[in-house]
Amino acid sequence: MKSELYKQLTILSPYYKENYLPSVSIDCVVFGFHNACLKVLLIKLKESETWGLPGGYLKKKEDLNVGANRILQERTGATNIYLNQFKTFGDKNRSEAHFKDFPDDLWHKQRYISIAHYALIDFETVTPVMDQFSDACEWKDIDMLPELMMDHQHIFDEALIQLRRDLNYKPVGLNLLPEKFTMPELQKLYEIILNKKLNRGNFYRKMTRYNILDKLNETRKGGAHKAPDLYKFDIENYNAALKTGLQESW
Amino acid sequence: MKSELYKQLTILSPYYKENYLPSVSIDCVVFGFHNACLKVLLIKLKESETWGLPGGYLKKKEDLNVGANRILQERTGATNIYLNQFKTFGDKNRSEAHFKDFPDDLWHKQRYISIAHYALIDFETVTPVMDQFSDACEWKDIDMLPELMMDHQHIFDEALIQLRRDLNYKPVGLNLLPEKFTMPELQKLYEIILNKKLNRGNFYRKMTRYNILDKLNETRKGGAHKAPDLYKFDIENYNAALKTGLQESW
Question: Is residue A49 located within the same domain as residue A150?
Fold first, then answer.
């Protein structure tokens, strides 16, 4: 297979071998929320019909968290995104089939363990940028994913489980909702992430107990119903809860 | 430094290079509970004053979870322990000082990212066994840890945070408590892991809601107070909750 991509990878192999840590790769599951819709950022490798998660390699003299953010920026143009490392994938045959037509000494063909990260952002704030290996970088609806390369569907599934699990101890919503929002709008965000309806009273009580919301002396005017109260996040308490966890019932 | 350990490591380096994946190591934080006491399993490298977590390297043709269990068994003699992979540690200088007196081509001196796992077991069921590099393998009280090598104190701290966090969505207690136990005994287990007192009524309500306990028609006789009810775990519901998470309030 003497394609353009093959030529590029062959030329780059010695450079990668000199500067990057062998056996280690990083993949990013970037969830995007906007207007009650949850998407994920995917890239399409050149000369390939399948899509994949944005990913790359760790430099020999680079901290892991620095490398993860660099890779996300290089492959998507997205900066200042807080990445949550959630799991490392290391099945022995996870990428075996992917470069099977390429020569064995190609950098990209070695066995990698993948350190996976996820993030949740407002997708209107990011303009994806393609790198030299990709011919597409797009937001895809999480309910209608295309076929994904290697074990990327599995990595995506685990990221979604982790995102939902994290709602049990981390606050969510800052930078995803407008500065002032109603309780039903916040509840809708949780419902979309969890993909289920929540009880309104329980949600209100739980949220109030977390002590991360400031109730404003304003209401959202204009609806047919009684104007709902507006809230904003108490940034200090919100950030404290990000670090130490929400006040759990244990 | 021409010590015995150095000679051993030098002789073994070519074997490791041929059979193990470069840059990747695995560390295990094994928490042991018994009689209201929480400990962690540590090993002491030969010719070293500091202790460390049991760890090792991943074989080139070995799945990550298989490698983690093999390493734990080789270094501690412990088998059939369910390991929870919780975080990968990849600071660029995490192990740099540790082998600084050794030659650069030593297998052990390369930069490793460490894929960390934790487990929680009854420490009476495990008899630690030393391997060729260690001269001690012991259970240490988590409140009185000795000085740990490299970033192992940080890895331990993160494991404890994760263990506590996991109590929010995973059941705990099977194989740690006797088959029949009282609610105060179960509460005590949670209190020791969380290192705080819990409210008795809240604990009872939360536990009952999880639907993983069978209340028996028996009481614990012999105390000065009213004999407390005995419970056992509903194994089917317990295992289902391990897989899919406890019924959360969201």
Answer: yes
